[in-house]
Design brief:
3-stranded antiparallel β-sheet, 14% strand, 460 residues, 4-stranded mixed β-sheet
Length: 460
């Protein structure tokens, strides 16, 4: 899904592999224009990394991979990065890390041990997982000292039962599973001539949301960056890192940094009326200052992309400085309120491919609830769009102009498949109630979401 959206919405050529042929086939089925389609394979890591038909890469991305593979496969990937990432290229990598997983590691071993030892041969995965979770709950209920020493484990175990079995199978029951401290990750990547650049998660860069002032001061006194990152993970009890590494980083001069920031374009990522001036960090939930954030948001409320320099001019005289804008946009991007935007040439180049991909995805929404993202030529990536919103878009494309008509269009599709919409988690009881609820959602879509999706280039 992701590789197709990014392939359609950007000018980048994408290559990827997924050892599961069903998932690779799904990705290939979504591809449209061969000139824009991602090159997708179902190779194992060693086979993919040793292909002779791959170019050198500007970017390499591994999401949800590193912690769930063997050291031998890590060595294959590390060697690939050394050979194939260009000088100046960027690596994105996410992984489970210590110390956040320290208490859970023994429980994970218990769960997999039960699945491997006590499950009957041939038992389906979901049943093995359900049985292992039940066993672990009953063990903790005996008053096990492990549970007393690690009270958060019992709460985490309860949360696991709410996740689908396919997620749990990958996250906890995989054959290989190794949360890795940052210092160990640095050993892997620095040996491949990469340097740590920073977290890919915007809100990680806002210390006030995640740490006390004393903690920030303590960490800033550590001169070695690698050890400082390791210590920071203890301060915030980090369990999942999303990091950028660069092959040959160069630090920008302050003026160059300001000029590049002013040349960045920004667009709204949620309905203006739905924006709450709040930010949620690991330590606190903060109220954002109205006098800083409201003028910035007002400059973006037409749902069109704007240069940061334009925002700076729009808020001139309000006391909002460039540094205020920088921190505000980092926080707003971190909570999904705004997105970075591409330039007009890139948008126009991407639009035919995103239009075609979104048409295919919305067509699937007629009978499937699985896909809830569409491609934006403006952001170059994916945007959350519910199934019902996709059906309303189909209704508009069919020439239906009013929300009531969109609701009837969606109601007929759902009725033909004996499907019901949910209200507070429960299916409606009658077709009349269903049409009424769909009517409300269609009006909400027209009033709140339609202008946003038009601005993002997702619908006309």
């Amino acid at each position: 899904m992701s590789i197709n959206i990014h392939g359609a919405a950007s000018s980048t050529e994408w290559y990827g592999t997924d050892f599961n042929p069903t998932q690779a086939a799904f990705a290939k089925d979504l591809a449209g224009d061969p000139a824009k389609a991602a090159r997708i394979f179902d190779d194992a890591f060693d086979a993919f990394c040793n292909r002779s038909d791959l170019p050198d890469f500007d970017f390499i991305s591994l999401h949800g991979i590193w912690s769930w593979i063997s050291d031998s496969n890590r060595a294959v990937i590390a060697d690939f990065i050394r050979r194939k990432l260009k000088v100046g290229g960027v690596l994105y990598i996410s992984y489970n890390t210590q110390p956040g997983w320290a208490a859970m590691a023994p429980l994970r071993d218990l769960l997999t041990g039960h699945s491997d030892t006590l499950a009957a041969p041939g038992t389906e995965t979901s049943k093995r997982i359900e049985s292992a979770l039940d066993f672990a709950n009953r063990l903790l209920d005996t008053g096990a000292m492990y549970g007393r020493a690690n009270p958060s484990v019992a709460e985490h175990l309860k949360l696991l039962s709410k996740h689908p079995s396919n997620y749990l199978a990958h996250e906890y029951f995989n054959r290989d599973w190794m949360p890795m401290p940052f210092s160990r990750m640095a050993e892997w990547l620095e040996s491949q001539k990469l340097s740590f650049a920073g977290s890919a998660h915007y809100l990680d860069h806002v210390d006030a949301l995640n740490m006390t002032a004393d903690q920030v001061t303590f960490l800033n006194e550590i001169p070695d960056r690698r050890f400082r990152e390791t210590a920071k993970d203890f301060v915030v009890n980090q369990r999942f890192r999303r990091d950028y590494w660069i092959r040959g980083p160069r630090r920008l001069a302050p003026l160059e940094k300001a000029e590049r920031f002013r040349a960045q374009r920004i667009v709204m990522g949620m309905p203006f009326a739905k924006v709450e001036l709040k930010a949620k960090g690991l330590l606190i939930n903060a109220d954002l200052k109205e006098e800083i954030y409201r003028p910035i948001l007002n400059a973006l409320n037409d749902y069109q992309p704007h240069y940061v320099s334009d925002i700076e001019q729009a808020v001139a005289g309000s006391g909002v400085t460039l540094n205020h804008i920088l921190q505000a946009l980092v926080i707003l991007a971190g909570n999904g309120t705004v997105y970075p935007a591409q330039d007009d040439a890139a948008i126009q180049q991407a639009r035919p491919a995103t239009d075609a991909l979104n048409a295919r995805l919305c067509a699937q929404a007629r009978y499937s609830t699985e896909i809830s993202y569409l491609a934006s030529p403006v952001t170059g990536g994916g945007v959350f769009v519910t199934r019902l919103e996709q059906l309303f878009m189909l209704a508009r494309d069919a020439g239906l102009a009013q929300p009531g008509e969109w609701a009837k269009f969606a109601a007929d599709l759902l009725e033909a498949q004996n499907q019901r919409v949910l209200i507070e988690g429960k299916p409606v009881e009658s077709l009349e109630q269903q049409l009424e609820e769909l009517g409300k959602q269609a009006v909400n879509f027209a009033e709140l979401r339609l202008d946003l999706l038009k601005g993002l280039g997702i619908t006309g």
